[in-house]
Amino acid sequence: MTQGPALTPEERAAAQGVGAEAVRRYLAEHAKAHPAPGAISCNEDTTEGASSHSRLALCIGELGIGNTTAAAALIAALTGSPAALVTGKGTGLAPDGVNLKAQAIEKALAANSELVRGRDPAHVLEAVGGLELAAMVGAYLEAGRWRMPIVVDGFVSGAAALVALHFHPPLAAFLFWSHQSDEKGASVLLQAVATKAKEIDVPYFPPPLMMSLRLGEGTGALLALPLLRSACAIMREMVTMDSMVEGKKECRGIDSETGSNQDKKELGPK
Question: pTM to 2 decimals?
Fold first, then answer.
């Protein structure tokens, strides 16, 4: 990418297709294992009945070496930030190595200045992205099409999510950020995401975990998933203050089937 675009348009599109197909395959396998009356096939060109997939959560992470460089380049290109502000030590670079990494990113952005100038997500991804990043972008977009909640892992998968948001800003409504990575550019990334959410009037919830994680591989997303499940359980099952005062075991929450507010439901004897 320091010499020119990292990907051709065809390579970028094909990689996004791989990610999208992985999501469709996951949904199809789940539907086969847990058939529901009137279920819609994921191979059909429709999102009718997509709410049936809203009870599934997709955790997106990655495994790679050197891809924090491409991730930082994507964030720099889409936010206009200097490379030095978003470049971290990755798997453990010394300060001199981090400086060389930032210089390589600046060189890549300069070599692809025509592509990145307009901040078009497809062009930026082709200029300084990678196949795994493009595949994650495709997975995010496909999962959003099916209205699935998506738990974002760390710095690299977060950079892919930012690209996906530039493709389709309403995706912000389905993204849950698991943790703030220990990578230097994580705060810039999350601020950009918060800004995107605000632009379309979608709530942005900061990541719940601050654990100096930098492993990737979906680990942060998997750590946060039980917290999200617990939050849903509280909304559905926790007794209300009024019911406690009245001596009743009642709850008011979200119907797990329809997603709508439930009326108070008595859970036990008065």
Answer: 0.81
